[in-house]
Amino acid sequence: MKNAEIIAKLNLEQKCALLSGAGTFTTRGCPKAGVPSITLSDGPNGVRKQAGAADHLGLNPSVPATCFPTAATVACSWDPALGEEIGRAMGEEAAAQEVAVLLGPGLNTKRSPLCGRNFEYFSEDPYLSGKMAAAYVRGIQSEGIAACPKHFAVNSQELRRMASDSVLDERTLRELYLTGFEIVVKEAAPKTIMSSYNLVNGTYANENAHLLQDILRRDWGFSGAVVTDWGGSNDHALGVKNGSTLEMPAPGGDAVRELLAAVQSGKITEADVDARLDELLTLVLDTSAAVQKHSRSFDADAHHALARRAAAESAVLLKNDGGILPLAAGARVAVIGDFAETPRYQGAGSSAVNSIKVDTLLDCLAQSGLQCAGFAAGFDRQGRPDAAKKAQAVALAQKADTVLLCLGLDEIKESEGLDRVDMKLADNQIELLQAVEQANPNTVVVLNAGASLETPWLAHCRALVYGALGGQAGAGAMVDVLTGKVNPGGKLAETWANAYEETPAKDNFAGAGRTVQYREGLYVGYRYYQTAGVPVAFPFGYGLSYTGYAYSDLKATADSVSLTVTNTGARDGAEIVQVYIAKPGAEIFRPAQELKAFARVSLAAGESRTVTLPLDDKAFRYWNTRTDCWEVEGGRYEVRVGASSADIRLTANVDIRGTNAPDPYAGKALPHYKSGSVQNVPDAEWEALLGHPIPQDKVKIDRNMTLGELNHSRSPLGWLIWAVLTALLNASFKKGKPDLNVLFQYNMPLRALAKMTSGAISMGMVDGIVMELQGFWIIGLVRVIYEAVKNQLLNAQLESRLRNS
Ligand code: BGC
Known about the structure:
Distance between the termini: 18 Å
Mean pLDDT: 96
Bound molecules: beta-D-glucopyranose
Radius of gyration: 27 Å
Helix content: 25-40%
Largest sheet: 6 strands, mixed
Structural class: alpha/beta
Low-confidence stretches: none
């Protein structure tokens, strides 16, 4: 049946009902009209389908599935073909489990190394993120189901994640935070996209006409369904009007009545509802048919092998003094570090997969041909000093040729719902490294963490291999790299700064209140360090190999770059060739150089190959805020081809015809944006870039007050709830494991009570609570009780009408 025929059969109430979820991960159906219900599941690095009690925080277990390396890891492969294979495998597992929409990949731009969810995002660079995410989407959707790239948009922190307002200038929005999504939408046609929790320039992303209508649907031609993040709908009717298709999870009858009333009052039209319904029906009919005919099984061993290959391709060799790696066959190694026995291989929160099996470094070493001199945990995982563990490790280190020291971040450090407090490795791990190195200088550090770290301890190891969060087969992959079975070819998808204080958004990241000021503008990651001349520990795009590569014969035009790459060593390998575009002496300020093309080139020992990399429409463009268009500054550009952003091997000039647009910054004093030194941009200069005054940041007692702000309310009940939540949170931190549920509630606005309780709480009740918090204790309470009774009655009537119609 065609969408239009179905729509014609439904009454307005039924139509409105279909635009919000039935359960935590299911949509409403209308069998009589031929509309099935579908299942959506996380996530970005493996399927997390919950068969039993469902939650969106990774708390309850899910059906076992392959845990692939997280996005931060696979980004280091710079290999879209690999991303597509992973996507296909995840899509296959999802469809086998009757999941119609897989909620991933995540591709938010890594604005700061401290964002708690960086492990599930690809890169600080939108071009690399976009290309990798597009590959995942193609792979997932090749199984007939839908991918759901997320979180659209400018969602780069966890603090106050459901109520923070990302304030930024239009050029930064377009060039840095939207380009990745633009690539995904235009190159991979995702069937859905997830709007983010936050506001963008004062309007919630999910009801933001500029984002959803002007940019996503009109400029990029997206025709799929926009799905809210879980509990991320603020004004459902406005969402529907402005392009958001499906509210999740299950807001109950209240959301249906809200839409009905909005149509009746003229706030939105029935045509708005029909337009969204049309998008939803296409999704539902298309994917449920694919799920129905899909096989119910998949080859778990093959997927494990793929996960291992992916982790090995993504491992980054950061240091290898004297060629201590690869380890010779039969070498006697001491294995030290808790992570060798209990691997840290994925992040926490909604992306957490119930892995089919998990390899450990200890088990994989036993099958590697290396001799194991023994294992010592070496340190307490939660950072407490433990002299006995350290002494044991030091004694063991003395008995081996080489020490494999497994260090990294523990579970509390990186999680959805919680930003990192610093970029440091725990002190007890650094102390252990120093002691072990004294006992045995042949110390190789194997590092597992989903984000960049400060490395002041680097001199204490001879080699450093970054395995990121390698998924369920990550340990085996690491052994392959250590023994040379795989020649490491990964390169960093994120800059490793020397210290957090040197990162561009250090004073503005996360923000003290609801308003988050993106003052650093375009200068995120290498765009900042290279423009402002700030030295870093490891540059973007950096990674070593067991062989060497030579670059020659560069030819560049406006459309493509070609060059010859030669493997000059004795081992087969893969080199990641990176093309950066620079415009020395540009009129319109811009970062010193930007990634505009890349290729991973496999080369046998001694082999030479000519590679051609196309330059697309993104190579020379910039967003002009005066013409509101992409424009090109005319003149001479430098094409820089490098082995990393800081290791440029070849350059060529190309002359590009410009679009002769007026200078959007004429007459404005923007010295910090011209020099790239953006750590301390004064208010006036930032306002000049923004084009309006900096928004005021005040805690308001309204539907959007978070539970963590209740101490600002005028109600003893509010203060009590705040005190209890704060105590629970602090206690969970002390125990070493943040309580994600409490954290979620802490950062949750009051209105989400009506969105996350399956209809038990209505928005009317929330308004009663708001009155209570404003100090109208009695009226507030009476209103809550009245609205609760009304809600129960109306919900029962509505659900019965929907069932019987
Ligand atoms: C996360 C999303 C996730 C959703 C469903 C939210 O809390 O932000 O990334 O897909 O929950 O679990």
